[in-house]
Amino acid sequence: MGLQYFLDRKLPIIRVRPFNHIGPRQNERFVAPSFAKQIVEIERGRREPVLRLGNMAAQRDFTDVRDMVRAYILAIQKGAPGEVYNIGSGRARSVREMLNIMLAHSSAKIAEEIDPAKFRPSDTPITYADPSKFKRQTGWEPQISFEQTCADILNDWRARIQ
To answer: How many degrees, rounded to 5, is the angle at CA 28 between CA 23 and CA 34?
Structure first.
């Protein structure tokens, strides 16, 4: 629709294709906060020390939401009307890697259990952005490392669960 409004009505529409956002305060329905909440509940003795996991092999282009917000602002300021830009880190990270980073920040002994209910009926094995066009247009690139984001998400849940 954005392209149609640009073409038909000459509105200065800039389209973006954002890839996976993660970061503090994200709803626990998403994978990163789900892991973090479970880990913190285990640390606090509020659940048995077993993580319920889905597809750990899936790879996604996870980018910190704080970097994505900067990207949106730059898209408005420097994007060309009518254009579309992919926004993401440009790197696929496995869900397993995410969990391993979070577990490295916890001293709790935690077992893992695959939960078939957490698998999606149709799951793309790997997705990642090619943000090169957006970088050329705006100079944007992520500033917050994946490792820092994972630690920040875990610490956010530690602050929420007392």
So the answer is: 85
- Give the span between the Cα atoms of 162 and 148, in whole angstroms: 22
Residue 63 in 3-state DSSP?
A: strand
Q: Which letter, b or e, does each residue of 69-100 get, where b requires 16 or more Cβ atoms within 10 Å of its Cβ?
A: ebbeebbeeebeeebebbbbbbebbbbebbbe
pLDDT digits (tens, 9 = 90+) for 20-78: 999 999 999 999 999 999 999 999 999 999 999 999 999 999 999 999 999 999 999 99
**Which among 95, 84, 92 has a CA at the least distance from the CA of 129?**
92
Backbone angles phi, psi at 104, to 5 degrees: -65, -20
Which tokens go with 34?
A: 């789900």
Which is nearest to 50 in space by CA: 31, 35, 29? 35
φ and ψ at 15, to 5 degrees?
-100, 145
DSSP code per residue over 76-94: HHHPPTT-EEEES-S--EE
- Mean pLDDT over 101-112 rounds to 97
Tokens of 128: 């990642």
